[in-house]
């Protein structure tokens, strides 16, 4: 498919796909820390953030698929490498799956142009994807470069040249996108028609003074 498989000794590059990297999950409202008596205590981050001494905390960790988003020129020198989590397609693109190959092709074609929040990864048993997957640009994690280099045995493959060029552009589009209210140029009648057509978002669609 769209993947290639470098040797384990190959340098880390953007588009490298890793399996079973640790994703840390914690709560700032209730953080479990170890006291000087080696006992656990639940506190808020606000209560301990001013501590001069290092804080030892117990956090949740889960293993995730992830793809390197740090640029190639940085992966050889920066202290930390950034990645985005890879999830099942249905967890990222919350819509009913198409029933036919034709509809799948149309969905993937149109969504690739309209939705900048994810990048499609087709199934391929050779890399470990038994189902359709997607890179979730909203879910990021970082790993120290040294640790990731030592964990290259967890690299299952990388995007080939065609896919990598597309991935790089989609990633850039996502992080440089300009947020705006797409209804700002509508007149009153156009605004009302727009809001009526988006019933699940009506509370977020607020008119400007000239649209009231």
**CATH overall fold name of the largest domain:** SH3 type barrels
The averaged pLDDT comes out at 91
What proportion strand?
25-35%
> Count of helices?
7
Question: What radius of gyration results from the CA coordinates?
Answer: 22 Å
How do the helices and strands line up, and which of them pair or pack?
Blueprint: E1 3-4, E2 16-25, E3 31-34, E4 40-43, H1 45-48, E5 57-58, E6 60-68, H2 72-75, E7 80-88, H3 89-92, H4 101-114, E8 118-121, E9 133-144, H5 145-150, E10 155-159, H6 161-176, H7 188-196
Antiparallel strand pairs: 1-10, 2-6, 2-10, 3-4, 3-5, 6-7, 7-9, 8-9
Overall description:
The protein has 212 residues and is α+β, with helices and mostly antiparallel strands. It folds into two domains: 3-179, Roll (SH3 type barrels); 183-212, no CATH class. The chain contains seven helices and ten strands. A seven-stranded antiparallel β-sheet has the order 1-10-2-6-7-9-8.
